[in-house]
Amino acid sequence: MKKISLPLCGILTFNGISILGNAITEIAIPWLILEISDSPALVAAVMTAKILPIILSTFFGAQIVDKFGGFRTSIISDLVNFLCVLLIPLFYSFDLMSFSLLATLLFFSTVFDTPGRLAKDVILMREIKANNHNNELINGLNTTVENICDLVGPVLAALLVASLGTINALYFDAVTFLVVALGLVVLKKHFKANTDIVKPVATHSWQYFVEGLSYIKTQRQVLSVLLISTTVNLVITPFLLVYLPYVNKTVFDSVISFGLSVACFGAGTSLSSFIYGLYGKRFSSRQIILSGYILLIVVLSSIPLFQLQILFFAQLFLIGLCIGFAGPVEVTMIQRQIPEELFGRIMTLFTSIRFLCVPAGYFCFGWMLESDISAWTPLFMATIVFLGICVYLWLCRSAVNTKTRDTTIGNQS
């Protein structure tokens, strides 16, 4: 196995630190609001400020990265995050904090965080090419680091809040973003790829967005992966954030069970992405997608049939194992098949389209859990994934037929 270069090790490490910082924010901010107001409704209202910028970033995130370059965008993003998070405990300590000011700081933190994550993806992609590394290996390791940090982050945040207090935890949170920014500055001299490349961008954000979407429509294989990924996300996100709390409350009546449920799922995704990094090159993306999602259908369909808690934990581990490969498979495909000048906007479209469909899943499955057929919700989720696989296979077949026809016409010419 080829030794992983220092810049790539650094990027993987800083990606993990960034995710840990975001995880601390996700725990510390709601806790701070509850300490001040004891109002869950106010928590929901303030945290909504973090959703709007994610939607807005669909239209300008890739544009910023192309216009200013991956390195500059990443540094600016981390420094803005550092400043916004730092100001929260500072304003609070001087009794200047208001909920509107808190929402504003969270808005700016998130609105710059999304392009920053994309910028790091661009830097990673260029370094993989410059060092001639195995895409599957690096993307698998990167996703494994992200999954582990997503798993450890909330636990670390809870320990920091409990031991240091919410305000000191936020100071620690701010420092993580500063460490990443300074770390990238130090690491830059070791980069083989040019991280300051800028590209001309369309005059209007909508035009920039439409150009990327039009390109995806012409690439049937890319489109097929986007649609199956969106379909699975339509199911998995409500499964984790709506169905899991519901089951652990109504069936097992235990918050500890809820935590263990999330941990089992996270362990599955981490193992799956790590396995992909080691062995993903031996299989096609189609083989991996079909085997993982077909197993996902089987596991989801089996959930209503059993009520044993230990078996439920095993099922959650298998579900994580089924979908942990999805992220690195998609990134590997985009890195290899998409022209570099379109990489940023295609990555942005993949993320945003999947996100925009999630509210429909919340509404649908939330309604089901309120109905008389709540116990069969996982079976309905499995059916949606099955329909997504059918569309995926149809598009794959269409892509093969189109390629064969084009080859035949070329030979005749």
Description:
The protein has helices spanning 6-37, 40-47, 52-68, 70-93, 99-130, 135-164, 166-187, 205-218, 220-250, 255-279, 285-302, 309-323, 326-337, 343-369, 377-412. With 413 residues, it is mostly helical. Helices cover 83% and strands 0% of the residues. It is built from 15 helices and no strands. It is globular and about 55 Å long. Helix 1 (6-37) runs antiparallel to helix 7 and helix 9 (220-250) runs parallel beside helix 14 (343-369).
Helical content stands at over 70%
| CATH fold node name of the largest domain | Growth Hormone, Chain: A
Q: What's the architecture of the largest domain, going by CATH?
A: Up-down Bundle
The helix count comes to: 15
Structural class: mainly alpha
Whole-angstrom Rg: 22 Å
Please name the fourth-level CATH homologous superfamily of the largest domain: MFS general substrate transporter like domains
The ordered string of helix (H) and strand (E) elements is HHHHHHHHHHHHHHH
Low-confidence stretches: 409-413
Shape: globular
